[in-house]
Amino acid sequence: MTQDQKGHKWFASIYDSMTARAEKTFMRDVREEIAGGARGRVLEIGAGTGANFPYYNDQAEEVTATEPDPYMLRRARRRAEGIGRSINLHQASAEHLPFEDASFDTVVSTLVMCSVGEPLRALSEVRRVLKPSGELRMYDHVRYEHAFGAFWQDMITPVWRWVGAGCHPNRDVASFVRQAGFEFERIELSKPQPPIPPMVFVRPHIKGVARPA
Ligand SMILES: C[S@@+](CC[C@H](N)C(=O)[O-])C[C@H]1O[C@@H](n2cnc3c(N)ncnc32)[C@H](O)[C@@H]1O
What we know:
binds S-adenosylmethionine; alpha/beta; 7-stranded mixed β-sheet
């Protein structure tokens, strides 16, 4: 069993309160756009506590969500029950998705590629399970474009990973998305976090829609 499947009990228990400020200031709008724009057969990976669930609308005809961490999964299940939305939940890592090729119209991934063990493998799995006409709707914090910021992200990553349940501040997520065989239909860079420690280390974010190339 890998660490992501053993889970992080304490991290799962504080996740919603830890992210409350971000939810209020920018994540609400992100989820509205990313999850709210999902359509057809939808797969969400790394669903966490299910923060995207309330944002799926009727365009999302069937929603399946995966999450490897059993403590997160329990919370996601409770959230789905609480909003009365039928969501098929599976305990699975993004690197090993238990679904057939070309079986989803949309894959949703928010703040997940920073945490997966093998981002390229995970995104290749996403590409495999997406229909050729499908889309990946994603949001993540990413590596600084300038060397000074990236240097400090590299310095802090070992500690941050330990405190943040495997989260890497220093990943160039867009480049993994492209390497996995996607091209961005749109991609937007923003810096929604304050320019002071500790959030300065996870300040640049990308929001994008990518399609199989
Ligand atoms: C920062 S949380 C984000 C949760 C949620 N997507 C959100 O937007 O609030 C990162 C999530 O990725 C999950 N995760 C870690 N490793 C993973 C993997 N290999 N495959 C899929 N999800 C993973 C964690 O368990 C956690 O729930």
